[in-house]
Amino acid sequence: MQRTNSLGNVRNVFAIAAEWLEQNRPFALGTLVALRDAATAPIGTTVAVDAQGCVFGNIGAGCYEAEIVEACVKTAHDGQMRRVDIDLTSNDELSGTTGCGATMGVLVWRPQAAFRSVARAIATGERDVRLIVEGNEERDGSHVAFEHVFAQKERLILVGATALAGELAALARRLDFHVVVVDPRPAFATTLRVPDACEIVRAWPDEYLPGVLSEHTPIVMLSHDPKFDLAGLHCALESNAPYIGLLGSRRSQAARRASLRAAGVEERALARIHGPVGLELGGTSLPETALSILAEVVAVRHGAGGRPLRSGRGAIHRQLEGLPAGS
Fold it and tell me: Which residue, among 324, 311, 320, 327, has the nearest Cα to 100 in the 3D structure?
């Protein structure tokens, strides 16, 4: 059984599924249950198709997506579970195949009314949700079982309700983060200033952070104010936070590190700070800066170096293998 993190738009598919169940609308779901040799999409990626062929979502099967849609329409009508196996190893410009080298297994199934609560839980991402699908496959009657955990959203904590925090929150929500902005100043910590934040906490960093930081909680200091930066950095360095970002020039970075050293913080701990924060993309606007920061957060999350893909060798995506359903 695998676990999917960073679901992004997959959650929207399950939100649609809950809505269609509420409407008693006939539909089926096609779920990626097996994958070999290339990471076209994470295991658990799902597409929703109603009985009229209305499609929501994408599995990444290229021209074979139509085959999945066709199977979903049939299942929406007759309720039979189907398995669609796809081979993307060929490279044919005429047929439109991608030649990415992947083989995929997609389980097509029709959810029942009781699935509505599960779909909503996956969509909100407030907790881990276990998906269990089983039944008899239409082709040969064999029993098929698939079990998968959709992980809850990871928190991204931004210290300082700045204009950049607003840009980061908007983009980070697209990346499936639960964005929390921490700032004690009532005039700054508002939904008007950071409309895309999932939470706005009006508190000093050292009041709020100790209870929420974990190995799954990246944090970025954005305030440019040493009162906030240093309080946040002390808390972050005492935690297992996977990413600690600090906005500011090289001069301000040196000043923050000097203050931390004077407070007894060791060099090994200081090396955990990503500052100046972000990857060098060359942009200077707020949206470009937000992209730079989140690009580094994502690279650290996946243990990647953030180098250009063209400078590497082999598959452009890391392998993400899954066992065939029923195995």
Answer: 320
Rounded CA-CA distance 241/221 in Å is 13
* Count of positions (residues) in the chain: 327
Contact between 37 and 30 (Cβ < 8 Å): no
Among 104, 149, 96, smallest CA distance to 125 is for 149
Q: Please, what is the Cα angle at 163 between 239 and 229, to 5 degrees?
A: 30
Confidence category of residue 100, pLDDT binned at 50, 70, 90: low
Q: Cα(293)–Cα(72) distance, rounded to whole angstroms?
A: 39
Q: Is 13 helix (H, G, I), strand (E, B) or coil?
A: helix
- What would the two tokens of residue 265 be? 């913080």
| pLDDT score, position 233 | 97
Q: List pLDDT tens digits, range 138-158.
A: 888 889 999 999 999 999 999
Structure tokens at 142: 């064999």
Residue pair 45/32 in contact by the 8 Å Cβ criterion: yes
Residue type present at position 236: A
Q: Between 115-124 and 10-22, two packed helices, what is the crossing angle to 10 degrees?
A: 150
- Indicate the pTM of the whole model: 0.84
Place of tokens 């658990």: 44
